[in-house]
Automatic annotation (TrEMBL):
Any one of the GO BP annotations: microtubule cytoskeleton organization
Protein name: ATP-grasp domain-containing protein
Region (Disordered): 17-43
Source organism of this protein record: Paramecium octaurelia
Record GO terms (molecular function): ATP binding; metal ion binding; tubulin binding; tubulin-glutamic acid ligase activity
Keywords: ATP-binding, Ligase, Nucleotide-binding
Keyword Nucleotide-binding: yes
Biased composition (Polar residues): 32-41
PROSITE patterns the record matches: ATP_GRASP (PS50975), TTL (PS51221)
GO CC term (a single one): ciliary basal body
Length: 593
């Protein structure tokens, strides 16, 4: 009987998932807004395909659209909100914050007071100390950092989450180039490299080094120090990524976008994208990759920190909003140039937003887990926000690729300029100041509103000053809830001590008769727990260990029973079943300790 139920579930679910897959495939060919609540089922074709090379037609279309669909926006004068900013834990990147405070007559707060606690990059250390005590002391302030942002501050961590999402939702998570982490994936990489298939690979240090140490892999030996092909000589803490070799070009140069995304709440998930950003160009015309040009960083890497040293580097003109020139430009001005080239910019913009939304749905449950680990039972009171920098490369098919994300996007607003006599001076970059002021100032204005206020007052697709709300607390596709549900289940099982799941509590899952069968008996739960816990060298299971355990249960319970088994369907079944179980089976004992 139970088995029938299981198989029924898998079959009905399979239909739903195939429908979903079909929908996903359609989405890839059809430009769709990520739908809001009421539109969720009505995926509309937003832009008809337009013949290329018709810039005038496109511009006309844009103008018409602008006229008919007036941008929905609430405008807030920052001066009208008298904020006080606490800088007591921050030691760097103060120039821009001070400028913003001065401009708006915002006050400096002391000790543990204020509306906003500014926590920037030099506080990575501080972020590690983002402990329960730290959170409690600043409980009444809005903290400019989500605990667990370390999950998105190294390429390895980001890659492991994106790999997981791709494993579960391959047709959705296809915008992060295939990535191998070293040394763990060396053998897999060698196998793929030897097959080659015309793919090139780029090797990057795990932690952002502003272009230093990056190289394009021409032979396996490149991955080893001194070229010694021995595992003990491997360049550790590198990732290897498929190289996107057909980039869209701007003025014949490769470029990428740095866009700024604001997260103000994790549950419900609320996120925004800033209308402004940067375009960073290479300083030499792009050519397809060959053995003779692969080491030319000015042709292949868009990092500003590298290209500023090139003799072809062009500093942006003071009137950067009108003149589309310079190695670094605004997102808006780059879009104007692309439009003149005949690129369907509205379509591109939509694709970029859609890609970012998908990325955020993938990463958010993991960030939520870290937040709950820190705040424990007070997690719902966590009052944190975060500005993330997205580096996005566009290929010639107008597909956006997320190349890197930065938990600490640079807020530098100065640049080095050469005088006519060859000496150098440091001055404020009007372009950086313009973009980054919007990014930070408006983030503060929005972040001090409660999630409910944001949803009610701003709403999906609408702007509050420079930020457009792209996620309003609702998932776009039901299945993507799975990882949130896993966090809930984990929390139910952990009880009072979130983050520490002991064996007894874990094994309560086996009290549910729907979660055992002849292939998975109660004692298997003990074995699964022990195996993963021993591997982790921790006394209890953390969330990632729990995820592994659930995967193992799902596989054992269903793999040999269901002909249409997939890991995603099986885990969904297990999680839904466990969450539906009467509460006493999972609910922790709340006995006083
Ligand atoms: P970092 O910012 O830490 O130096 P990135 O991952 O941003 O490292 O890479 C630096 C630059 O290299 C990018 O801005 C981009 O121009 C280029 N690049 C990185 N990854 C790829 C890739 N997979 N395909 C094509 N170009 C890439």
């Amino acid at each position: 009987m139970l088995e029938n139920q299981m198989l029924q579930f898998l079959n009905s679910d399979f239909q739903q998932f195939t429908q979903q897959d079909k929908q996903d495939k359609q989405d890839e060919n059809t430009e769709t807004e990520v739908p809001n609540n009421s539109q969720r089922q009505m995926r509309v074709k937003s832009f008809e395909e337009k013949p290329a090379n018709k810039p005038l037609n496109l511009i006309f279309q844009m103008l018409l659209q602008k006229k008919t669909q007036k941008r929905q926006q609430i405008k807030v004068d920052p001066k009208s909100i008298p904020l006080s900013i606490n800088l007591s834990v921050q030691v760097q990147e103060l120039p821009i914050i001070r400028k913003i405070m001065e401009k708006n007559e915002w006050k400096k707060a002391h000790n543990f007071d204020g509306d906003i606690l500014w926590c920037g990059p030099d506080n990575v250390q501080q972020a590690k100390q983002f402990t329960y005590d730290f959170a409690m002391v600043f409980m009444n302030l809005c903290i400019s950092r989500i605990p667990g942002a370390k999950l998105i501050s190294t390429k390895k961590e980001t890659t492991s989450i994106m790999d997981k999402m791709r494993q579960y939702f391959p047709s959705i998570y296809n915008f992060y180039p295939k990535t191998y982490t070293m040394p763990e994936d060396l053998h897999e990489f060698i196998e793929d490299f030897e097959k080659k298939d015309g793919i090139s690979y780029i090797a990057k240090p795990d932690k952002g080094t502003q272009g230093q140490g990056i190289f394009i892999v021409s032979q396996i030996e490149d991955l080893f120090n001194n070229g010694v092909k021995d595992i003990s000589y491997i360049k550790k803490n590198y990732i290897i990524q498929e190289y996107i070799s057909n980039p869209l070009l701007l003025d014949d140069k490769k470029f990428d976008f740095r866009l700024y995304v604001l997260i103000t709440s994790l549950k419900p998930l609320i996120a925004y994208i800033n209308e402004e950003g940067l375009a960073r160009l290479c300083t030499e015309n792009y050519q397809d990759i060959t053995s003779s040009n692969l080491s030319n960083v000015y042709m292949h890497l868009t990092n500003y920190s590298l290209n500023k040293n090139s003799q072809n580097f062009i500093i942006h003109p003071p009137d950067f909003q009108k003149i589309n020139l310079g190695t670094k430009r605004t997102y808006t001005s780059a879009k104007k140039t692309l439009m003149k080239m005949g690129i369907d910019v509205p379509k591109l913009k939509l694709r970029i937003e859609q890609t970012i939304v998908r990325f955020l749905y993938g990463i958010a449950p993991f960030l939520l887990n870290s937040t709950r680990e820190i705040y424990q039972d007070k997690w719902e009171k966590a009052n944190c926000f975060h500005v993330i920098g997205f580096d996005i490369l566009i290929d010639r098919d107008l597909k956006p690729w997320i190349i890197e994300i930065n938990a600490n996007p640079s807020l530098e607003i100065t640049q080095v300029v050469q005088n006519s006599n060859g000496s150098k001076r440091v001055e404020t970059s009007s372009l950086d100041a313009y973009v980054k002021t919007k990014v930070i100032e408006d983030a503060f204005i929005i972040a001090v509103k409660t999630p409910q206020e944001q949803i009610e007052q701003i709403g999906k697709g609408k702007y509050c000053n420079s930020y457009k709300m792209i996620i309003d607390g609702q998932p776009p596709i039901e299945n993507l809830d799975l990882f949130y549900k896993l966090v809930d289940l984990y929390s139910n099982l952990c009880g009072l001590r979130y983050g520490n799941l002991n064996q007894m509590r874990f094994c309560r899952l086996a009290n549910n008769p729907q979660l055992i069968n002849d292939l998975l008996i109660k004692s298997d739960y003990d074995l699964i727990y022990k195996k993963i816990q021993l591997k982790s060298l921790q006394p209890d299971l953390n969330f990632l260990g729990f995820l592994e355990a659930i995967e193992s249960i799902s596989e054992k319970l269903l793999k040999r029973k269901a002909s249409n088994y997939t890991l995603q369907k099986a885990v969904t079944y297990v999680v839904n079943t466990a969450l539906k179980a009467p509460s006493q089976q999972q609910r922790p004992l709340t006995a006083k300790r």
